[in-house]
């Protein structure tokens, strides 16, 4: 749950909602701001459920508007985009290859949006959806326990690097 981080230095707070869509993000963050007002980092892993139901243009417009709002809500927070993962099956679309091409473009554009706001991204390049990887459940949509481990290790690796950089740049007390 703490991704191997020292709990005296880092608190990882998970707010995962299966089936969540982009339009639910800002209301969730406004609710969380009451009890969690000043996070150092906000990792956003969202959008996969929107890819086959929203046009990429509309999704990216919402992302740009909402990420700018998030920057205002949490001005001292590092925004981190966690790439939308590939899937073997995309609900609401018969053409998984086409949706995957859209996913790649959307990830790249969101990475640029977040970078312009001073944030960064976690790519998850080691998560692939081939049938023999063992990283996905049989439904081809959700990660298997092994896939969740790889995903979490990617986040842990990012946080460890961030923590190391942060401790280098902070003055000795």
TrEMBL record:
UniProt superkingdom: Eukaryota
Gene3D superfamilies, sorted: SGNH hydrolase
Coiled coil location: none
InterPro entries on file: SGNH_hydro_sf (IPR036514)
Name of the protein: SGNH hydrolase-type esterase domain-containing protein
């Amino acid at each position: 749950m703490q991704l191997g981080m020292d709990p005296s230095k880092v608190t990882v707070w998970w707010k995962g909602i299966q089936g969540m869509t982009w339009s639910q993000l800002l209301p969730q963050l406004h609710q969380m701001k009451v009890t969690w007002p000043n996070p150092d980092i906000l990792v956003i892993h969202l959008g996969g459920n929107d890819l086959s139901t929203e046009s990429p243009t509309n999704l990216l417009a919402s992302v740009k508007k909402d990420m700018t709002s998030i920057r205002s809500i949490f001005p001292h927070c590092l925004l981190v985009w966690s790439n939308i993962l590939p899937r073997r099956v995309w609900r609401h679309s018969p053409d998984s290859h086409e949706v995957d091409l859209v996913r790649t473009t959307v990830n790249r554009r969101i990475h640029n949006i977040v970078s312009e706001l001073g944030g960064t991204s976690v790519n998850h390049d080691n998560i692939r959806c081939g049938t023999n990887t063992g990283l996905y459940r049989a439904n081809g949509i959700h990660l298997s326990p092994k896939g969740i481990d790889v995903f979490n290790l990617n986040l842990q690796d990012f946080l460890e690097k961030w923590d190391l950089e942060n401790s280098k740049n902070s003055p000795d007390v």
